[in-house]
Fold each of these.
Amino acid sequence: MNLSTLFNAMPGAIAQGLIWGIMAIGVYITYRVLDYADLTVDGTMATGGAVCIMLMMNGVNVWIALLCSILAGMLAGLATGIFHTAMGIPPILAGILTQLSLYSINLTIMQGKANQAVSVTKFNLIVSSRYVRELSLNNPIFISLIFTAVLIAVLYWFFGREMGAALRATGANEAMSRAQGINTNFCKILGLMLSNGTVALASALFSHYQGFVDVNMGRGAIVIGLAAVIISQVIFGRFFRNFALKLAGVSLGAVIYYIVIQIVLWLGLDTNLLKLLSALIVAVFLAIPFWKSKLNSMRKGGVPRA
Amino acid sequence: MLDITNLRKTFNARTVNEKVALAGVNLHLDDGDFVTVIGGNGAGKSTTLNAIAGVWPVDSGKIVIDGTDVTNLSEHKRAFLLGRVFQDPMTGTAASMQIEENLALAARRGQPRTLRPGITRAEREGYREKLRMLGLGLEDRMTTKVGLLSGGQRQALTLLMATLKQPKMLLLDEHTAALDPRTAAKVLEISRQIIEENHLMTMMVTHNMRDAIAYGNRLIMMHEGRIILDIRGEEKKNLTVEALLEQFARVSGDEFVNDRALLS
């Protein structure tokens, strides 16, 4: 094992972590703020890239293409929101239904091909892995940082507004929100749209970064997003109380996740086992609060509730 | 003014768990009426309050609050008319949000939620004053998360939230039942103050007969989804627990079997 190989891989891991961190911020909006486990993101994480790359291949300006990606993601969130609020489908199932639909939709957008590539020499890509070790304004780490900062600023502003506060209240206590005249169904739909719009932005950026969009690139995205949210909670939870700092923590969580993955691969883990490893790590971290409460109630002599 | 006509609600209709919760409730309240509601478990007290609040649609009947027919309005759309405090202190507030944020949410009841600031500096000063009047020291903890407050503090805060934007009607659903006796007395006293100061039309469900007699200008008793007793004015002032139990037995042909009501 050669340390310099690991060292060389670090800039790439950080850049990927930052882009997936944007996705994780989207997951944070639903999972933490809205208290809604939204599986739509596995589909949206490919939709954003598909829309952006295909529009660019058809000569559309890169920024307009990016905007369309975000709108497409918001539409996916709207679909899940309607499945849940207007049709009464439970959150997880509503997300799975949209996710499955998106597989067909993504293939259709990509004109029936499982992947579509764009070359950095021919296209004006916002971020590209080609420049990841270059000390310039083209460096994807630098550009991703700017995107993350702007996103956090916008979300921080929004959640301090009446509408954002209503959204947070909906996630915190639905009965109370309705008693205070908040349209909780509207808030849920809005939250899902915000979240999936953010994920689609990450998707578009990631397809730029790797130079292609793949119909499967979102598989397991929710798990990576949850991992980032949980890592940030475990490491920064005590210090990051402010909402903006919490979002920044989630982004850092994703970077840490990618660095750890890089180290594990460097240690010789079979890449095929990567998703298994991610899932198990997230499962253990999700279990920690449950185990803690179980331990506490046993200490007090009470009977733990399953 | 509140007008309820022939209100009916059956839960789990046409199943083995079918439960007729409201079997034709008629009630008229005038502005400023403070009614206490008593009755055994399953009598329909909380169901009546939930029907007024619109937690679910009723099967038939009509509810008119202050001239607005709310029967077919969803819960959040009729919220501008109502202030509500619940039995469980967890229900009335958002635990993960600050005291001042909770108040700001309540101050906007009945208004569209726009992109204006969620809370302003001027508002904060107003809330500080109102919190001071509760006498619980919450005015110095305005950025504390509500989840860190005691049950009594949360109920007092919920009361303040329910009346911050003056409602046409206040619904108190056993709001002191989950509190220890001393805290319950304090919250009840705060309730009375707020109701009197704002001359609020109020329905208060309670299991405590003494409270039901001591508070308000009117008392109704429910049994099997109907109002079976309606006592007001001088008659209510002279009421005793014993007389109330006797009346219940006479009207319902049933013993008032409820340990909580008898022992408290």
Note: The mean pLDDT of chain A is 94.
Amino acid sequence: MATIDSKIPEGALAEKWTNYKAHQKLVNPANKRRLDIIVVGTGLAGASAAASLGALGFKVLNFCIQDSPRRAHSIAAQGGINAAKNYQNYGDSVSRLFYDTIKGGDYRAREANVYRLAEVSNAIIDQCVAQGVPFAREYGGLLDNRSFGGAQVSRTFYARGQTGQQLLLGAYSALSREVQRGNVKLYTRHEMLDVVLVKDSEGVERARGILARNLVTGKIERFAAHAVVIGTGGYGNTYFLSTNAMGCNGSAAMQCYRKGAYFANPCFAQIHPTCIPVHGDKQSKLTLMSESLRNDGRIWVPKKIEDAKALQAGTKKPTDIPDEDRDFYLERRYPAFGNLVPRDVASRAAKERCDAGFGVNNTGLAVFLDFKYAIERLGEDVVRARYGNLFDMYEEITDENPYKTPMMIFPAIHYTMGGIWVDYELMTSIKGLFAIGEANFSDHGANRLGASALMQGLADGYFVLPYTIQNYLSDQIQVPRFSTDLPEFEAAEKALKARINKLMSIKGNRSVDSIHKELGHVMWDFVGMGRTKESLTTAIAKLKEVRKTFYSDLRIPGSADDLNVELEKALRLEDFIGIGELMAYDALNREESCGGHFREEHQTPEGEALRHDDKFSYVACWKYTGEGNEPELIKEDLNYQFTKVQTRNYKN
Amino acid sequence: MWLSNSSIGRKVVMSVTGLALILFLTFHMAMNLVAIFSGDAYNMICEFLGANWYALVATAGLAALVVIHIVYAFWLTMQNRAARGSERYAVSAKPKGVEWASQNMLVLGIIVVLGLALHLFNFWAKMQLPEVLHMLGMHVDTTNVANGVYHIANTFSCPVYSILYLVWLVALWFHLTHGFWSALHTLGWNNKIWFERWRMIGNIYSTIVVLGFAVVVLYYWLCGGAC
Amino acid sequence: MDKNISFTLKVWRQRGPKEKGHFQTIPVKDMPGDTSFLEMLDIVNEELINKGEEPIVFDHDCREGICGMCSLYINGHPHGPATGATTCQIYIRRFNDGDVVTVEPWRSAGFPVIRDLMVDRGAYDKIMQAGGYVSVNTGGIPDANAIPIPKPIADEAMDAAACIGCGACAAACKNGSAMLFVSAKVSQLALLPQGKVEAARRAKAMLAKMDELGFGNCTNTRACEAECPKCISISNIARLNREFIAAKLAD
């Protein structure tokens, strides 16, 4: 069995990163010019990494599938970004942010990584302000903060409801500067379809390039470099319906996995509690309503089942139900955190109520998020100033006015904590292949706290990878630039073309989307919010059927050597099916409930998640063993040395 | 030179020449009003602005402004049409808040120029031009060159001319309502607060200028200048 | 509940930038009112695929109005009939039974058509690269609260920064001008002390790039502002003019 070295530096928790930086190897400026780095993805992680590496003097090739780097889905993050600045004097500190993140992740994240994340969080805010990110400010001119789920301090920096957009535009502008200076070359509308490994003189396989399909011409193009960085986000779209953008996919991660990179904790997917409920079977995606709404909105369902039935039948309106007949179940179950419990807890509580028959819309799959009380307390103007744009968005989509009637919300797939396994240096199990941002697994454990994704993406890109990659590249300075005519590139391209031809020649009757929807249903029904051994075994069987349908009945119109959106989607779907299987295997293996992973067999009498630290305090790393085969499990022990592992408690 | 090779520079030229022309219109309008109150006083002004060196210099300057304004207008329009691309929209709708004038400045400008040609034919060709020709030694009749009132009464006694002049003034009004604030906007003298203010000031100003001209036309047309 | 709506879709089809395009007419039957406009196109595409035809190509991604990728010109309006919304935020309930819904790509020399409704907006990236940034490297930055910024200034910068770079401004402009886009970025950075340092250089560089790429001259028609899905104000254009003229006069 393979062993895992996560390369965590020696020393006390608070000194590890300092020690690492003091002792790591660096690349001198003259040599940086001679080293090429491929960065795939232009979201917060990818753009910040490409910009920072470019500024250091490396030659960077940066890829994205959209028409511009600024479209990456980081842009859609609404709420904010955490940092341990303690500007509000609430007693915040690096160690408290570290602790909240570890606890929020249900003790399934790597301590050293999370501590480093908390440590660099403050520098991110400084960096963004210097780039011209217009964070919200108070009248005194200093930065404002807001509260977010899972924390008792106010540490979230925000720019209206568009924090992700502003941070991404900051990173994008830094990236644009490096393009102008000639350090970064941009390849838009290019999709990475394989990572190319080349053996060095000692027989060690290293990531030396990628194959990418030019989405406009359909041509397969080869790119070589000294190191490859994957920053391609998460795989939430495995579920078809999610809050992810339509183009979000897990394909880059799957290509790395198939070439030998471990896939870690795939079953840890975050289900966001405040999304607009599904309205029909033609729906293409789910819309997130910012978590910040939970600051002032109160979540409830009726106390009486007959009221719920009347709401479902449409014979009663929510405003007909008096306060005493409303069950504010989060406030009831979690008095200390109330409506601000972490996302996994809030989502599961909503599911619990709906499963019990208290759902409030025609499908019975929705709960109320009510601003009546906030309007009474603060006045409509204040509520409008805080959430006006979100309310408008809600009204445009649902045709209902949330100032007059409560919003309806339901959980939806939002983020994936699992991803490519990386060590402390963010290097995968393949030498020279790095993974950053949501694409890796490292910092959020089994559940991510709100406003931490932006923090992690930028931490990896601005302040971690630019250091750690040098430790790898320092002994690559003698290696000359690669030719893309190497036999490894030749072979990879041949295999890729065969893969594409195989899909093109199925010529069945089903569109990509119709099969993707089928996959999504299997995933949501059997690998969703509540999982059991039985449901997961069923899922694995059903996924085999989906795979069969895919290979026998797929139809892709047009040609492979041309712009072909259906082919793009088909390639991604093929990978989603693989990811779905991985998720099911991982969820089946993890016989405990933690964070976003809830096994119904493992819960406390009150219905809370029940962890089994003695058996499952590890990162589940899955190794590829061939298409359709059961993957091999390798465990990285999570040896908690500095934190006392406890049951998460948001009650008191 | 940034006034010709940058888009804002070219717009600055339009803006400055436009504002100068608005200023000229204001003086011209004020001068015309005198014709209502006293024909003699008006003719004194006409005398004063005859073929004297300062009036000729000013006329040349004015002509230059008009020519630059027109040349730039056609230049910008050609560039802008090219920037639209070869294919036109099949359906287009006017968005809310967009003034009709703002999208038709060239057409309005052409009407204004045609009106100007008529005006030069009616007045300048009979007043300053003969004087200049006379000075150059040519044999022309200069009896009425400074008798502005005579020419006004003569021209506007013809209803066709009066109506053409009024059409001209309407086009001028539309041209000015957009031109006024747009010129200031182009020079950067605008923001969210001043936007509506400038527009209001522009509308009032244009209305005053155009009414001032129109009153003289109507007065001489309807009352023959004697009521 | 929303009712179902039937209408005629007239959609632009064009194989490539150099090829001649044409309208394809597709009847759409009983589309539920709560379907988004892009979901409607998904459904139409599904039918085209089932008939063995090639689907309509259009850009889209986040489908929540923030990525700026969607770009349709619907019934004479960029991003369709709603104000302050992108194409992906338009719902079928906005249309009536029997309507003819005409869908065209952005048409501007700066945005050549790639296929059908998909256009190349790379020009906006090039304008950004010309100077749409603050020249700072990663690290070595003073504390974020070192320079207080008055809230009204920060808010105004945020108003400008809300631009999503979708290209609707140039698509709406009869002059094919990208001034609203350029001015929003110039404004955001010129307002903040961090960006003020190189404001003059930025204004000149970004404007020069815009001109070079073949965008037109702004004539203040305000169509851009009216059609902007993020309601970016043309007061930003006044600020850009101011910055640019001041920079040129100082040269």
Note: The radius of gyration of chain C is 20 Å.
